[in-house]
Write a structure and sequence with these properties.
The protein is mainly alpha-helical. It has a domain of 78 residues. The protein has five helices and no strands. It is elongated, with a radius of gyration of 19 Å. InterPro entries: DUF2127.
């Protein structure tokens, strides 16, 4: 598979991720905190995550418990993160040259933040997203170099 094809797949996934974050922010803004914590409690008490005293169940209960405290932050974060990603994806899909270094810096900042938050929150998902963002940064930089070479050759 070519690097450009991988790049296209990566930015498509990043665009979907950005759109899902916007939807997630909207849902968090509309749905009451009590509904979310009640849902988390129902999932844990019905053993849908395995042992109700297990690690995954504890993480879900803890996250739901902290949700009420950080709700505004979560909504703003999801909206901002989603909009930034969608804007970068739009510019990269149209091969706007100035967007490539900006995307590499912004996504690298997301990686640093994701690692920082993962360490402090013991999140299971954030390290996964950080690795994906590192792969996307590498693909963005490779595509940028290739486009620069193509423009010089033309």
């Amino acid at each position: 598979m070519s690097t450009e094809k991988l790049f296209r797949i990566a930015i498509t996934l990043k665009g979907l991720d950005g759109a899902l974050q916007l939807v997630g922010g909207l849902v968090l803004m509309i749905v009451p905190a009590s509904v979310i914590s009640g849902f988390a409690h129902a999932v844990v008490t019905r053993d849908l995550l395995g042992d109700p005293e297990g690690t995954l169940a504890r993480h879900l209960e803890l996250a739901a418990g902290h949700f009420a405290e950080g709700r505004t932050f979560a909504v703003v974060y999801l909206f901002a993160h989603g909009l930034i990603k969608l804007g970068l994806v739009w510019a990269l899909a149209r091969k706007v040259m100035r967007a490539y270094p900006v995307a590499a810096v912004v996504l690298s900042a997301f990686v640093i933040y994701e690692v920082f938050r993962a360490i402090h929150t013991h999140s299971l998902a954030l390290p996964f997203f950080a690795v994906l963002d590192v792969v996307i940064v590498v693909l963005v930089l490779r595509e940028y170099r290739q486009l620069k070479q193509d423009r010089v050759a033309a």
